Amino acid sequence: MDIRSQVWSPLQNTSVWLGAWLYGLTSTDHLIDALNDLGSQELIDALRDLRRVTRDVAPGEPLLRLVLSGPGDAPALRAGSASATAASKSTGNAIVVRDRDPLTSHVLVPDSSGHWEWFTEDQPLPAPAWLSPGEADHLLTQATDEATRLIETSGYRTDALRSPRLTVGTLADFYDTPGLPESVPPRAARLFARADNVAAIIETVTTRMNDHRLDPQLLGLWRHIRQARMAGVAYAVGEFGRLS
Q1: What's the pLDDT score for residue 208?
Q2: Domain co-membership, 111 together with 138
Q3: Is residue 237 domain-resident?
Q4: Are residues 203 and 110 in the same domain?
Q5: Same domain? 15 vs 117
Q6: How would you label 83-113 residue by residue, b for 16+ Cβ within 10 Å and e otherwise?
Q7: Do 113 and 162 fall into the same domain?
Q8: Strand partners, 94
Q9: d(CA 50, CA 99)
Q10: Residues 113 and 159 in one domain
Q11: The pairing of beta strand 105-110 with beta strand 116-121
């Protein structure tokens, strides 16, 4: 199994860039550069339609939100819908965009090759958790501390990784590329950074060191990493709306 696909998705940064652009906080040129860097070039052709469907949307929830899924977590989309089926067959991830009609949502689903499908749902989607950055950070911290305790209790040590609290700088640099808009609120950026750090540690142990003895302790963190990323996107895009 590809560990990186479970702990990181370019959709996190894609969602933030789209949100900043839809709220007028970044230019179209900067957005296009970011989409090219993120491998989401195909979305460039959809920008005009995204602007159209989000025009005059009532204040309230963020204009868009991120949907991430993984083992044990189905995509938070309407069961049996075309968008849920497409997401389940590809990456399991999606971007949900609001419409001026409160009962309508637009679901953008990518596959692993960078192709996107656009689905329009005319029935309510499952409600997201809407965790605050503080709540998501607390849950991720708790899960990390518990995994660390289990690892330390097991007596696990290697010459390559002497402490499970190691910060893996080289991989953290990967997760931060190609960056985020300047308008991202610090609380969201800090939450993304914590998720990146935990993801880098997991990838180091399971992939770079090819050591799977700790899988039971580490794999439970995946869900909390995804929750942190979704919460960070929702908070950032919500703040964009407040600032615009």
Answers
A1: 58
A2: no
A3: no
A4: no
A5: yes
A6: bbebbeebbbbbbbbbbeeeeebbbbbbeee
A7: no
A8: 67
A9: 9
A10: no
A11: antiparallel
Which residue, among 146, 160, 143, has the nearest Cα to 207 in the 3D structure? Answer: 160
* Both tokens assigned to 169: 């700088």
Q: Which domain holds residue 55?
A: 3-129
Contact present, 156 and 214 (Cβ < 8 Å): yes
One domain for residues 148 and 113? no
Distance of CA 231 to the CA centre of its chain: 8
User: Per the domain annotation, does 172 fall within a domain?
Assistant: yes
Strand (E) or helix (H) holding 66: strand 64-67
The residue type of 29 is: D
Angstrom distance (rounded) from CA 70 to CA 72: 6
What are the distances in angstroms from CA 81 to CA 9, 47, 224? 23, 24, 26
Name the nearest CA neighbour of 19 among 230, 202, 195, 234. 234
pLDDT digits (tens, 9 = 90+) for 99-145: 999 899 999 999 878 899 999 999 989 988 889 999 999 998 888 78
Torsion region of 25: left, alpha or beta (phi above 0 gives left; psi -120 to 50 gives alpha):
alpha
The C-alpha atoms of residue 213 and residue 156 are separated, in whole angstroms, by 9
pTM, two decimal places: 0.88
